[in-house]
């Protein structure tokens, strides 16, 4: 029911205390260690302070690794590229792309939320959905920088070395291709479940803070893999497999790294933690 929203929030997604678990792991070889932390990209003020394991891993690390180069991702040039990719350049408009049902659904949502549909009629479904999700997150107060941006700023101030697991243009291509070939279903599904967003976000943050892999994997990812196999493969499986060799390289260095990626990339059978264990690395929760 809530899978598409989960996929977007986790790729892009609490005031309860941390429990005995955590969303920070430590991978070891005989001569090197690498910390691996699961992030949430947007948070509320009430979601602070972050679980203390994140600061412990950060303080112990020489280099901080993100999904991509966050400085480039936030640059005016990339933001302009995203804006250009958000609109149809071939004369198409949403009323021609979407089914009558999907367009009516979008029209009703826009009317209820004071959005002039005519102003967004040239925008692609992925941009519409991301905008809607952003608006709903703002309503919930989730307008604070997430784990990754927080530690990017901290690493910049501390002059720590930083790196990325994928090129910015790769991440942009993945983001801007969401919903391709399935535009109507993409719109209808997300709008239908927008009212569940706060409940879903609360569950997500609770699971992240407590390191509850069962909720993160079984309740979210397994259903997502079943219902949206193509999107799941693009967002998670393919990227995880691409990142693994790079994480292995860090495990061969004498320095200590802290790898920060979306929490959904770490859990489940295709997750980075399980894949590292299959490769023979010792991986455990940071205590």
Describe it.
The chain has 287 residues and is α/β, with parallel strands linked by helices. It is built from 15 helices and eight strands. The chain has helices at 3-11, 52-59, 70-73, 76-86, 94-97, 100-112, 117-120, 125-139, 147-158, 168-176, 183-192, 197-210, 213-227, 229-250, 272-278, and strands at residues 24-28, 33-39, 42-43, 63-66, 144-145, 161-164, 257-262, 282-285. Helix 1 packs across helix 13 (213-227) and helix 8 (125-139) packs parallel to helix 11. The longest helix is centred in the last third of the chain and has 22 residues, at 229-250. The chain is elongated. Mean pLDDT is 86; it is low at 1-20.
Short summary of the structure?
The protein is of the alpha/beta class and 287 residues long. The protein has helices at residues 3-11, 52-59, 70-73, 76-86, 94-97, 100-112, 117-120, 125-139, 147-158, 168-176, 183-192, 197-210, 213-227, 229-250, 272-278, and strands at 24-28, 33-39, 42-43, 63-66, 144-145, 161-164, 257-262, 282-285. Mean pLDDT is 86; it is low at 1-20.
Work out the oligomeric state of the chains in this entry: single chain
Instruction: State the end-to-end CA separation.
Output: 34 Å
* Helical fraction: 40-55%
Low-confidence stretches: 1-20
Tally the structural domains: 1
Number of helices: 15
Estimate the global geometry from the Cα principal axes: elongated
Q: Which class of secondary structure composition applies to the elements?
A: alpha/beta
| Major sheet attributes | 6 strands, mixed
Binned strand content: 5-15%
Tell me the strand order in the biggest sheet: 6-4-7-2-1-8
Order of H and E elements: HEEEHEHHHHHHEHEHHHHHEHE
Q: State the total count of DSSP E strands.
A: 8
Output mean pLDDT. 86
Radius of gyration computed on alpha carbons: 19 Å
